[in-house]
Structure formats: structure tokens, C-alpha cells
Amino acid sequence: EKEKEKERPLLKPEIMKTLVDAFDRIYEWYADVTGEVPIKLSLFENKLPIYCLKGKSQIGACCAWVGLTGIEMSDWCWLNLYEGWHNHNQIDQALPYEFGRNFLFPNIAKKLNYIAPDSTHAMSTGYAVFMRFKCLQDCNFAGGVFRNRPYEEFVNSVRQLLQTYCETEQSWESTLKVGKCFENPLGLSECDLWASFMLTICELSDNNFLKRFYQQVKLRPDAQTSLDAVDNLVICASIASNQNLTSVFQEWKWPVSDQAVATIIQRIQ
User: Is 0.90 surpassed by the pTM of this model?
Assistant: First the structure.
């Protein structure tokens, strides 16, 4: 027997206004941190669109256009968002994640993403995973339930991935490069692992680190190999934090090149 679709609640204008205000703030955070805004693919009454698709969706929970405006939401995802905000003052994580797709620009992706046949998924999706966490944290929004678990438990599980990685025989080559992650209680992927690295890197510097980081990323040459992408991240993280992070990444078993080490030494005074 097919499960009956959940009826949409009667939307309250005052709740909708505060929800729109919250996502205006999220949009502004992304724009400030990345230094640019998505190309306008489509507008609705001269406003940026988030579409809710009535009934069953072929897109999963949500789908955003990469580097462009526009997000589509399934009906049930919209209900999670509205009811979570209305009843608990929590932001469901799906939309902040999809904003990470809208704000993934070529001048970031081409510097940091790995090159096929290596995994091109770890960074491109890991970016959205990571930016979701940072956005909700920096905007002081409480996250909603994820897979029937409290949001904080979800975040802590992602953070825990790096510790587990360091305690085992894992390396960049055995995980991020090949698009794999070790077993973990929530079944988190290599994308979550990439996010775990980035969350830890942010904690090594001040609140403006991420903005400086993406400024530096845009100055780097496009990665021609996956090792170029690794070097770009290590160099930019070091410059943005004004500290030589070579030993940190080497401890994490990332393959940092001698040229990258020399660049960092030259730039960090």
C-alpha cells in the first residue's frame, strides 16, 4: 500500500517572512565568503527562485544549478523546512547545502577539484557539505533533524571522521583520491570527509579565514592534475591563515609537493 502524501500546512505569512529573511541572510553569507554571486539563470517577479514541486519529484530532496540561481525542492523537503522552522526555529540542512551548489563557481572548482579518473565528487559535493555547516554556524541558525538524529550529532559525526582517519591506516590516496570513505556509523562518504578536513582547517585560524581562503584560491592556476588541486588547497590555506600548514597536511598523509612547500615558505613571513 502506497504511503499517503502528507498534506501541506496552511502557510502563515509571518512565518514565511521570517523564513525568507533567514535565507536572505544565508545568501548574503555565501556572497560575502565567496566574493561573488551566482549568474541569474531565471527570476520570478525579479526575485531569485526556489521552486517547490508538488507531488513526487525525480530530483530527490533538492536540486540546485551549479554556479547559477535556482533551486528545486521536493514537496516533502519543503514540509521539513517549513515545519522545522515553524515548530522548532530550526533550518533544515537541505537548502543551505544546495546554496553550496549555487555558489560553487568555476574559479573555485577548477582550482580545487580533482581530475578524472580520480574522484571529481569528493571536492565538488564536499564543498556543499562543508559550506552548509559553516553557513549555519556563522549565521547562528539551529540545524534541523538529519536521518532522525539531532543536527549537532550529525555535525559531530562529520567532525569525527578526521579523527578516525588519523587513527587508522587511511591516506589521501585511499580515500579522497579514489572517492571512498571508511566505515562509520552514519554511512558518511568521502564528501563528508573532505568537509571534515575543511572544518578543522577553519578552526586553525580566525573568523575571516574562509573569505581570505577563497580569495587566494581564485589566484591559483587551474589544476591540471589532482596533485595540483592538493597543492592549491594547502598553499591557499597556509597563506589565508598566515601559517605554514605543510606539516599538518603531511601528518594527514596528503601528498604535498616540494614546489608547494617552497611557495608557502616564500609567502609566509
Answer: yes
